[in-house]
Amino acid sequence: MKGDNFKMSIKSRWLGMPLLAAVLASGVGIACAHHYYRVYDPYYSDYHVWNNDEITYYHTWARENHYDEHRDFRSLPPDQQKAYWTWRHNHDDHDHH
Question: ∠59-42-57 over CA atoms, to 5°?
Answer without folding.
Answer: 15
